[in-house]
Amino acid sequence: VSGTRRAWWLRRDLLVWLMLPLLAVVAATGAVGTYTAQRLTDKAFDRWLLDTARSLAAQVRINDGQPSLDLPAATEAVLGYDEIDQVYFSVSAGSHLLVGQQGIPRTGTRQASYRAGLAYDAYYAGHPVRVAAARVGGASDGDVLVLVAETTRKRQRAQGEVLMMMLPVGALLLAAAAAIGYAVRRTLNPLEAIAARWNERSHASLQPIAADDMPRELMPFATALNDLLARIRAMLAREQQFAATVAHQLRTPLAGLQLGVTRAAEAGDLHSSREVLGELGHTVQRTARLVQQLLALGRLDPEVRGDLAFVPTDIVALAHDVGSTFLESAAAKSIALELDAPGAPVIAPLQPELFSEALGNLLDNALRYTPGGGQVLIGFDTAPPAIHVSDTGPGVPDELRDTVFDRFVRGRHVEGQGSGLGLAIVRDIVALHGATVTLGRSASGGACVTIRFSG
Amino acid sequence: VQYGRLSWFGNEGRVDIAGQPLVLLPREFEVLGLLVRRAPRLVPKRALIDALAERNLELSDSAAEVYVSRLRRKLAGSGLAIRTLRGFGYVLEAEALP
User: Does A340 contact B at CB distance below 8 Å?
Assistant: First the structure.
């Protein structure tokens, strides 16, 4: 099968490649059979005709080189008698006819030669005839030629019968063709049934297709299709996850922008509104960078992930910057947001935008679940570098500690509009840094989240 | 610059609370100026130290805390208070008036 072939029908191919050889075999058998049968009938009929010619020749007497034939009328009648065919004969010496009919042809087509003489096809008295020719030697002016001609009805009848013998073969051919057609259809019908079943599935459904009731030859297709479906499902899930992540992480900067815009509008003089607008510009820039980093995070492609630059960063300074953006909301809830800075910087390799997002999510969570008058404390370890965010909220029950980092899993005492995404994003970002994030209990019984870098 | 009952006159080096002058040392004056101008928002400790260094007034990390606590004492009863946000900095807040 050529590789550049266009769409084709297996059914037609099967039929053609099964029927053609069958037809050839049957045609060859028929042709050989017919030919052989004709040869046999020809030979048998020729013998009889030659026997007649020879028995006639045996009556020829040669006296002193003069041939003579004394044929009783009864004999002549016997010779000429045939129920079906017309029989003619002639005995002649040279051009002199001794007895019989004038003008029986001396040559013809399809000549066959036997020990007793020749046989050939010719026309006599307007009919096709088979002629047997026998010679008697000894006459002075050449051989005596005995010709017996017989019309060919019997032969044609015999050949017709031979052809009739071929009819059952034809019937067999038809039966075989029907069987092949049925077999091909029966074999290929399940394909259509399977295709119809696949098509019946909802177009939106990406569930794998059942492959157990399928011919083994089709398994590779079903498997390939299921693999493809699985890849599409994973891709869709990733895209949805990405969209959710982006939406989640954009809420904070958007709220900041909203606040800043309001503040700029309410500013008494141009100078202070310029100051606020400057801050807004920074927020916009930061947000744009954030979107890019989220894009990088959203791609599971490791090559793209390699594009993320990890730079040694002081996580205390970074936490200070991130924490500062939460001071206002902390004050609004009368929560003391504090940062327990060690004397020296704590350096860890990280991607500043993404890590800021992770930390921001932790602070957002802590502030969300801590009641008014409480405290949220950012603390650090130096070796290995680690950052803690602990709060005086209700804490997380032990049984939820493992699942709370999964997407859309939220704690039990959740009020407000948490999306269940924040911690999942933290986990993703932390994993990207090769760090670990754990949830524990703070001194006050609240939650304490620790991000620990390796080494 | 004015915040609450406090008026800070940078050019004259003078601070009034409800019209009454407040006596401050130069470093206290500058620290209070920063707090007033940013009020009621956070002034990071780092920003305090940097701003004073710009005016050739050296201030060490612990000295900043000392000046803030002195200021806090001098502002007592003025309706204004300096709140410390540990690890972040200071905020000048207007207290609810009695």
Answer: yes
